[in-house]
Write a structure and sequence with these properties.
mainly alpha, 75% helix, elongated
């Protein structure tokens, strides 16, 4: 199991930071949308 995780991380090393940035942007957008009704 750990070997497979290491292999996947090694193969996707070039795009892992972009994927993490995209996930963070989605979470920030979700939290922002959930708080939006509180402003009105």
């Amino acid at each position: 199991m750990m070997n497979e995780i290491r292999q996947v991380l090694h193969r996707s090393r070039a795009t892992i930071w972009q994927d993490m940035a995209g996930g963070a942007a989605l979470m920030i957008g979700l939290v922002g949308m959930l708080h939006l009704p509180g402003f009105f």
